[in-house]
Amino acid sequence: MNDHHPLDAVRLSRRSLLAGAAAVLCTGSVLSRAAWGQTVSRIIVPFPAGGPADFMGRLLAEKLKDAMGRTVIVDNRPGAGTRVAAEVLKNAPADGNTVLLAPVDPMFIGPLIYNNMRFNPVTDFKAITDVAGVQFGLAVNASSPIKTLADFVQAAKARPAEHSIGISTVGTLLHFLAVEFVAQSHAGSTLVPYRGGGPLVTDLMGNQIAAGMDATTTFVEYHRAGKLRVLAVAGDKRADALPNVPTFAESGFPDLVTASRYLLYARAGTAPDVAAQWGDAVRKILAMPDVREKLGRTGYDLLSGGAPDEVARYANALAARWTPVIKASGFKGD
Predict the structure, then answer these.
(1) Does residue 245 fall inside a structural domain?
(2) 262 and 132 in contact (C-beta within 8 Å)?
């Protein structure tokens, strides 16, 4: 006589499935750690070599050799407003050997303006920590009679055709900050898109355009050298690298308070202990005096490397603040 209850077979089957799943997860974790222990790591940077982001990536890579005891290289993958680099990370193995150092704003802006996104920032990536803050500023040629943000607004209202504002990128937080500034100031300025900060600075230096808006990392050396004048920055405090430059809020625009941050991302599915090694190492590096001095001199605001949950709260708050503005603009990318 068979005295087994029919449900016993179901329970046994379920136990077998769970055990099998656990074995698969364990094997995957072992394989992940094995790959992590044997392979050179790389930091993908979504901008060309020689720029501020590349400098930060290479500074991290140099220090990570000691902090993690492994070789770390920088892989520059510029293009498509950081989407090219993000796709490289999505297509990389989730073994922790490939990470992405990128600004947070394209991650939430991309799905709002592009129809052909080939990755999902929410499900494909996990933020490990934040690395540095990025402020945005409005700059003019140092020879310009415009000395303050109020001066620019007054001049632009009087002669809007002569006071266009160049922006280094479109479809980014910088772009929509410029849209908001023009709307709130009623200046009437036209926004002129450029292919990067280099061409924008060239035209500013040559008085080919009245003003430019970009990350302070683009402007800081020219401002210090007396070639460009940053009129205001948009952060909730003055930029670490430009302590004498007022904020937009101090200059009469209390609603224009925003900034971005560079985050370190791993592929979703990366083993938590591997991701934690990156985070712990970056936090140690960001506390080093020489690193803080170099990042500050380049124009970044200094951070200490937040925990993943802290970074997620920051990113969600930034997205909530700007999503209505982006949608209301009606802007769509290529």
Answers:
(1) no
(2) yes
Domain assignment of residue 204, given as a range = 136-233
**How many domains does the chain fold into?**
2
Q: Whole-model pTM?
A: 0.87
Residue 152 sits in the same domain as residue 167? yes
Q: Is residue 13 part of a domain?
A: no
Beta-sheet strands, E only, within 255-313: 260-267, 301-302
Exposure of 73 in the CB half-sphere (CA atoms within 13 A): 6
pLDDT in tens, 160-207: 999 999 999 999 999 999 999 999 999 999 999 999 999 999 999 999
Q: Which residues pair with 44 in a beta bridge?
A: 75, 100
For residues 162 and 181, what is the distance between their CA atoms, to the nearest angstrom?
A: 17
316 and 261 in contact (C-beta within 8 Å)?
no
Nearest to 259 by CA among 205, 198, 216, 200: 216
Residue with tokens 């909730």, as numbered in its chain: 236
Quick one: tokens of 44?
């993908």
| Tens digit of each residue's pLDDT (9 = 90 or more) over 85-119 | 999 999 999 999 999 999 999 999 999 999 989 99
Element (H, E) at 57: helix 52-67
For residue 103, count other CB atoms closer than 10 A to its CB. 22
